Amino acid sequence: MERADLVIVGGGIVGLATAQRFTLRHPGQRVVVLEKEASLAAHQTGRNSGVIHSGLYYKPGSLKAQNCRRGKRLLEDFCRAESLPFELCGKVVVAVDASEVERLDALHARGVANGVDCTRIDAARLRELEPHVAGVAALHVPETGIVDYPAVCARLAQLVERSGGAVLTRARVRAIRAESGGVAVASEAGDFDARLVVNCAGLHSDRVAQMERGSRPARIVPFRGEYFELAKPARSLVKNLIYPVPDPTFPFLGVHFTRMIHGGVECGPNAVLALAREGYTWSRLNVRDLWDTLSYGAFWKLAARHWRTGGMEVWRSLSKSAFTRSLQRLIPDVRREDLVAAPAGVRAQALAPDGALVDDFLIRRSSRVVHVCNAPSPAATSALAIGESIVDELAECAR
Prior knowledge:
This protein is α+β, with helices and mostly antiparallel strands. The chain has helices at about 15-25, 65-80, 100-115, 125-130, 150-160, 205-215, 285-295, 295-320, 320-330, 380-399; strands at about 1-10, 30-35, 50, 85, 90-95, 120, 135-140, 145, 165-170, 175-180, 180-185, 190-200, 220-230, 240-245, 255-260, 265-270, 270-275, 340-350, 360-365, 370-375. Strands 5, 6, 7, 13, 14, 15, 16, 17 and 18 form a nine-stranded mixed sheet that branches. Strands 1, 2, 9, 10, 11, 12, 19 and 20 form an eight-stranded mixed sheet that branches. The protein has a three-stranded antiparallel sheet with strand order 3-8-4, with helices on one face. Helix 1 runs parallel beside helix 5 and helix 2 (about 65-80) crosses helix 10. The protein is globular. The relative contact order is 0.19.
């Protein structure tokens, strides 16, 4: 059994950021990152749209708001120091008609409360920024950016290894057991006697928590987000990032347009229940995962509240024409033939026993283990700040 000061389960951006922040705080201590896939950032980190979020959307004082604002600064500084590509290109959040203006103004107030550089603009200024967008008003958020998150992960892994740590792939964790003075971790890459453990397993974080705690603080319900890319002739319709005014009762931002750091424009995502935790298509079914969702009473409470919205999301998934119409609310000139299918992502959304979608980051600590039980967007933007917070939590565990 190999000894380690810290074992981290999960090689996405939150796990790798935590590992790198720990090595900075505790030089000479050994960190091991265990990733079950053959490569790093294989799921949520590598399948999002690469946005550096500003902190506009989140409840003031929440973990999302605090960590997004600090994490954004840390991420930008990290990219500059490591010569990684990123760009603060800005975005607009668009009220397409008068019925959305009140929600737009509420969002503006929230952004100001969070310290975000955001300006309420009229339709004329909107057309200057995004000539093809239809809207009566908008928020301009110039500090929103784009980045290559897998590249950030690769550099974080390099830094961990240079500090004497190990980043192991094909290392699925089979068991976690607290013992006197430490934690035993059994994995496909070997067994470890760890002083401390962090669970950053994303789509499987609740199951990893159950290995150690015997229960799950909340259950992960997977929602697939499907994307299209704009064909080259249509890319000129989008200058930077274009978002709708979000529905405050649903934790998804709605389909939007994102210019990517390496070129191209992505459109989406929608949000449909995935039939597997790694269910990137309708044909990918995992009976265990689906039963985990359908046997959870909280899921049916959620479905009862949002069945109409859920039905529309499914229809938009099955009908490219319906997806196109949702995009045309923002850019009327987009046509069905402009859309080229792109890889989907799956959001690991924690669902509380009362049927509420857990809105904030959810982190739980036991005697020697920290579990990241809910870390959807803006976790990638926030990762370095979340990592520092987890290292603080580990200091409390070690006392």
